[in-house]
Amino acid sequence: MAAISESDILEKRIGILESLVFGLADKDTEYPKAKSTNVKCIDALNNVHSKINVSVAGRKNITETFNKLSDLQKYLDPEFTDELTITPSAKTEMILAEEDFIMQTASTMQKLKELEPIISSEHVKGAPYFSSSSMSHEKMQELSQVHLNQQDQAAHLTDKAKALLGTYNSVITTLSKQFVVWDQMLTDMEIQAKPVKKAD
Predict the structure, then answer these.
(1) 22: Cβ–Cβ under 8 A, 6 or more apart, which residues?
(2) Which of 40, 107, 134, 179 has its CA 20 to 30 A from that of 15?
(3) Do the Cβ atoms of 133 and 19 come closer than 8 Å?
(4) What gap in Å lies between CA 172 and CA 166, rounded to an integer?
């Protein structure tokens, strides 16, 4: 088996990145290689920077806000409020309260680390199914659609089962009422059938 060159590895990584960025879209149609452009990235950034400077020129409030962005980010950070309101002992108690969850997460991470050599093995990488990101993406979409269909079917069966249970309960209730009526009628008939004792 021929050794894989660095250019092949780089080309493969670029292909994976393009699949993640463009998905199922046709990259060559939206961004043709033959299309010429004179816009440079640095020139575009400088143009945007110049427009921003022109927009805020003479506006003290905006300039002061820009100067205080770091302070605003600091004050808006939830951790800043926690530092002011939660004491170190309270933080310790919170961590101890989540000890079981932290230990479970650490155990799960350890298992994932142990499984990493298997996931990164050449057998998995060389599998045709996993070698193409677009194929994997399409397969995941198919599986997602199947899962959604199964959820709809389960919901339909649940509704149908509820309807059947409702019908069953109605039938049982009706029969119970009818049995009560029949029992009362039978009792009345038994009373009427008893011979009446004649008075001496």
Answers:
(1) 30
(2) 40
(3) yes
(4) 10
Please report whether residue 173 resides in a domain: yes
Instruction: Report the C-alpha gap between 27 and 18 in whole angstroms.
Output: 8
Please report whether residue 46 resides in a domain: yes
Nearest to 4 by CA among 124, 120, 122, 136: 122
Alpha-carbon torsion (85, 90, 95, 99), positive or negative: negative
For the stretch 40-65, pLDDT in tens is: 667 778 888 888 888 877 777 877 87
59 secondary structure, DSSP code: -
Q: Is residue 195 situated within a structural domain?
A: no
Q: Please write the tens of the pLDDT for every residue from 94-118.
A: 888 888 889 999 999 998 888 888 7
Number of domains in the chain: 3
- 160 and 178 fall within a common domain: yes
List the domain range (segments joined by +) for residue 51: 39-85
- pTM here is 0.29
Q: Give how far Cα 138 sits from Cα of 3, 129, 194, Å.
A: 30, 11, 84
Question: What are the distances in angstroms from CA 124 to CA 7, 68, 140?
Answer: 21, 51, 17
- Find the distance separating the first CA and the last CA of the chain, reported in whole Å: 123
103 and 81: one domain? no
Please report where in the chains the tokens 């660095």 appear, as a residue: 6
Contacts of 134 (CB under 8 A, 6+ apart): 19, 24
